[in-house]
Design a protein that fits this description.
This protein is mainly alpha-helical. The N terminus is likely disordered.
């Protein structure tokens, strides 16, 4: 049952970030959806089981970005992260796959992720708590 049977991450993130959910011009929501998709089922660094967001945050924490990640989940101001930090924190095969699917370089993908990730995580954790599963995440967003 792994695979792509879950809710549409692109629609979720596109809606949260105020962007469209369509085609290759989906922008940050599309890139972030593909990034989170890579963490579904534990295939990303650290894995997140049925919660790609917790898998991603675990990887960021292990890479020394816990202060930034905690600020996005918490209810205060979101601390920025750079594209270079994203490149160092993500598994290289994950970043390569996301970049390739979007027809951009890994550096461009990392910069786009860095620009969108703080806002997306903040909106996905409105009570300052990471949802326990993707289903819970979707319910919180009324999808």
């Amino acid at each position: 049952m792994a695979g792509n049977s879950g809710p549409d991450l692109g629609s979720l993130l596109g809606g949260l970030l105020g962007g469209g959910q369509g085609g290759s011009s989906g922008g940050g929501g599309n890139i972030l959806a593909q990034l989170l998709q890579s963490f579904l089922g534990g295939s990303g660094s650290g894995g997140g089981g049925n919660n790609p967001l917790s898998g991603l945050l675990e990887g960021l924490n292990k890479a020394g970005l816990s202060e930034q990640a905690d600020s996005w989940v918490g209810t205060g101001d979101n601390k920025p992260v750079t594209g270079e930090q994203v490149q160092q924190a993500l598994p290289s095969d994950t970043l390569h796959e996301v970049a390739e699917k979007n027809g951009i370089t890994e550096e461009q993908a990392a910069n786009e992720i860095a620009a969108q990730l703080p806002q997306a995580v903040d909106k996905l954790t409105p009570q300052g708590q990471v949802p326990s599963s993707l289903d819970e995440l979707m319910k919180q967003q009324n999808l």
